[in-house]
């Protein structure tokens, strides 16, 4: 038995059976079944995502200290790395805590993809949800765009607000390094949503629906745990 068969027997088939069961309970509609399944999965993953949310909140709180370290040891990468690790250790922060939920979400997405590959033509269950056939790509691009938008909002919320340090007089070299880091961070902020839109447009719209619901759930969790985060900057700009 290869890895694909093991994955199918342990995850894909049980998820498929549960999705069909849930769809039958929700007015025999596959789209509603996907929404219900996604919400249930997110609730089940709450114990795993809480450490990640706490990690994000703490990282926002210690952002000024991290900036101080960059200004102080920016030219000494080894020392900067040591001080960075020391600061995280002082606040009991484990970087892996912020990665696990995303890894799990991708794992669930892969499983959902395998479910769609296996075929979802079940007698008596509608595949239509509003204007979409959830087993086919979204020709309107509404769901892929929503997937990218929710991903962008969530990514921005994870970023702390950028505040200028009082000691603004620094060497041109340090300024250029900080500017380069800020540029890379900004590029990464938009890269993931763009990739999400491109990938979602080629996949069955049911997967886009899953991504929209799952990411919206994460946005709500993040808001109640840490507030708006970096999203507050955009809202302030819109108010002007």
Automatic annotation (TrEMBL):
ATP-binding keyword on record: no
Q: Keyword annotations for this protein?
A: Cell membrane, Chaperone, Membrane, Protein transport, Transmembrane, Transmembrane helix, Transport
What protein name applies here? Membrane insertase YidC/Oxa/ALB C-terminal domain-containing protein
The UniProt entry's GO biological process terms, in alphabetical order, are: protein insertion into membrane; protein transport
The organism of origin for this protein: Candidatus Woykebacteria bacterium RIFCSPHIGHO2_02_FULL_43_16b
Tell whether Glycosyltransferase is among the UniProt keywords. Answer: no
Topology in the membrane? Multi-pass membrane protein
Residue ranges annotated for the Membrane insertase YidC/Oxa/ALB C-terminal domain, each copy included: 31-225
**Regions crossing the membrane:** 30-50, 189-213
Family indicated by similarity: Belongs to the OXA1/ALB3/YidC family.
> What's the chief localization of this chain?
membrane
Question: In this record, what's one Pfam family?
Answer: 60KD_IMP
Q: Which terms does the record give in the GO molecular function aspect?
A: membrane insertase activity
Q: Name one GO cellular component term.
A: plasma membrane
State its location(s): Cell membrane; Membrane
